[in-house]
Structure formats: structure tokens, C-alpha cells
Amino acid sequence: PVADCQDITVELDSDGAAEITAAQINDNSSDACNELSFLLDETEFDCDDVGEVNIVTLTVSDGSSNTSSCTANVTVEDNTDPILVCRTGLDTLLGIDGMLTLDPEELIMSVSDNCTEVDLEIDLSTFDCEDVTGDPIPVVVTATDSEDNSVSCTSLVLVQDLTAPECTVE
Prior knowledge:
This protein is an all-beta fold. The protein has 1 helix and 14 strands.
């Protein structure tokens, strides 16, 4: 038989896995007399395979026990956004200095990704007395994984000042 392969690209699923078949690699392999059977040496890929050249070998056999092989490149991509759940709201207090700094972790309920750790960023992290308005302030949290897949959500931050003023007599 004449083995003919083609390169393919596969995308990891939400569990960080992808599976391929010999039919995806086969590119019209042929034989003059017999039906062909196909065997692929590697069919499963995971997060460790992202960004690497993954070479697979397709072996083609005919009914007369003749074989031929070819190789193909399998490109594995992670295009799945992280999963991010924000708190609906957060009541906060200014410090005695009239300032408040938030970390992104304070605004989320959970974050996960199919392959890697994520970086969290918020669009507004520092608050002061001008933010004590009685109205919640929307703060956008963005989670980005190592493949630059990202997702955002919004949490409402209510900034309060419960520090009593100090009076000094001179």
C-alpha cells in the first residue's frame, strides 16, 4: 500500500484532553488490490502537548500483510477560556488612612482552567474617600491562562467609611 498522511490541528476539551483517529491523519492512502486497515501509534493528547510538534506515525496494511507508514504533525491547541465566578458584591471598609486596596482574589468565588494556573487582574484596585458614595462600584476581574485565553466578570464593591473623625484640642 501507499501510505499518505496529512498534518492536523486538534483542540483540547474542557478537561484538557484531545483524541484523534487514523482517519483524521489518513490522506487518501491507497492499494491496488486490497482494502486497507490503519493503525496510529499515538491517539491521545493533553496539556503537556500544547505548543509542541507532536509527530504521529500512521501504518497502513493491506489484506496481503503488506504495510507502509507515513508521519504527520499534530498541532495541539488550548483555546478554552478559564472558568471564573465573581462575587456578586463585596462590602468593604476604608482603612484609618482613608484608603483601601483590593486583591483580585477578594472579588472571586472560584477560578479554574483546563490546563494551567491563571493570572488574575482587576481594573480598579485602590479606593479612597471619594469612592464612599453609597452606590456600589463595578470592578472587572479578568482571568488569563498561559495560552492567553481569558474571561472576565464583574463584582460590585461598596466602599464604606466607618472610622469616626478625631478631634484634637490645642
